[in-house]
Amino acid sequence: MEEDDNVPLDPQPVVEWLDDDEIAQLDLQTISNSLQFNRVSSQDIIYQKKQKCKMVGRYVMGDKLGEGSYGKVKEVLDSESLTRRAVKILAKRKLRRIPNGEMNVRNEILFLRSLKHKNVVELIDVLYNEEKQKMYLVMEYCVCVLQELLASAPESKLPLFQAHKYFVQLIDGLQYLHGQGVIHSDIKPGNLLLTLDDTLKISDFGVTEKLDPFAPDDTCTKGQGSPAFQPPEIANGHDSFSGFKADIWSTGVTLFNITTGAYPFEGDNIYRLLENIGKGVWSVPEGLDPLLSDLLVNMLRFDSKERYTIQQIRNHTWFMSSPINTGDSVPIPPLQGNALRSSTVLPYLESYHYESRQNNVYFTEHDLNEAEEMARQQETSSSSQNMRISKNNSITNEEAFTTRASSDLNKKRRTKKKFISCISVKKLTHCRQS
Ligand SMILES: Nc1ncnc2c1ncn2[C@@H]1O[C@H](COP(=O)(O)OP(=O)(O)OP(=O)(O)O)[C@@H](O)[C@H]1O
């Protein structure tokens, strides 16, 4: 439809409402004078693709928000609480093909169910569809991933005051997790989500480890996180390491990344990268705030025993004295052309509620103006015809004509109504797009 440049439009769909007999009796000369076929550019046509409204449980499905290695994440609307949510859709067939896939998902559900903190993403609901062999993890909705914000920022870094705001929340969330005996194991900007009110949420608990409540310390044995954020002890292949300190290292790399736009360790390939991390030699970028540099040096200490604890981070001057708010924050970037990241569920709901009216809505501004003009003319002719009926009580040819005209008029009125409903659909659509 969009490719067709010459879409013929009938600006007077009144013909639609007449049956064969009625058409035969019409004054064809008058009609042919008023019939116009407009040549319209496809860009001017307001074409609305039909959106099929789907529901999973009580959730109305919206568009895709992102995709991880386990499946798609879509926006949904909770039809009971009218709250925006995100749902991770996991297909059993796909999970089986991923090493430890099913176990990691079970892990994630288990952890998320037991955790509740404002800086940890909340799992709201878990739904299963046996027939489709699918699982739906309904989570609280976040508007952006910190990684996306960085990618949109000048030099891929945040102003210090903004980075500080997120870092403080990251430490709050991490302290809560460690207090629950949970080692996240994959802290990085790609796993930190932001809500509309700028709250940071730690997400992705696929490779998280839970310490045994009777374990004497925080020893862990599996290092499965993203290579660039792994500490030297994991890069060097140690059998066991401190889980808390591994998370502190990843948090340090995250702080380095969001404040400088770079990484402390790089490598042409994953082996070189791990080799460089294993050597533990890195330097603070020139011109970095000295207090921030000092905090980074202590969070990225090669020896995990010398690395800062969460409490030491909290006591550090940079943590305690937030940087001066200079300039603007980096704003949430648009998503698929949607600058405000407004709800993607709305078009599906519109489609569901206005479905019959929305069929074949291919109108241009010109058509809508003509429809309004036609409606005005009909109102005028209606009042003059009514006057004629009241003046003449006998059945004459003129009255027969008047009765016929009045029946046409009713049909035209129905057409007008149809047009007006289309106008409202068009305007609603327009509002949403702008
Ligand atoms: N709660 C949420 N609210 C909004 N968007 C989300 C939410 N959770 C995930 N997303 C979006 O879905 C994407 C995929 O998330 P998911 O957790 O499945 O994978 P990932 O962490 O990006 O990758 P992987 O699972 O491979 O490590 C995210 O990058 C993000 O864009």
Q: Care to describe what's here?
A:
- With 434 residues, this protein is α+β, with helices and mostly antiparallel strands.
- The strands form five sheets. The chain has a six-stranded antiparallel β-sheet.
- The chain has two domains: 55-142 and 332-421, Phosphorylase Kinase, domain 1 (2-Layer Sandwich), CATH 3.30.200; 145-320, Transferase(Phosphotransferase), domain 1.
- The protein is built from 15 helices and 15 strands.
- Helix 14 runs antiparallel to helix 15.
- The chain is elongated.
- Residues 1-15, 385-409 and 412-434 have low confidence and may be disordered.
- The chain is 44% helix and 14% strand.
- The structure holds adenosine-5'-triphosphate.
- Adenosine-5'-triphosphate binds at residues 65-70, 73, 86, 88, 121, 139, 141-142, 145, 190-191, 193, 203-204, 206.
List keywords for this structure.
single chain, 434 residues, alpha+beta, Phosphorylase Kinase, domain 1, Transferase(Phosphotransferase), domain 1, 2 domains, six-stranded antiparallel β-sheet, three-stranded antiparallel β-sheet, 15 helices, 15 strands, 44% helix, 14% strand, elongated, disordered N terminus, disordered C terminus, binds adenosine-5'-triphosphate, nucleus, cytoplasm, transferase
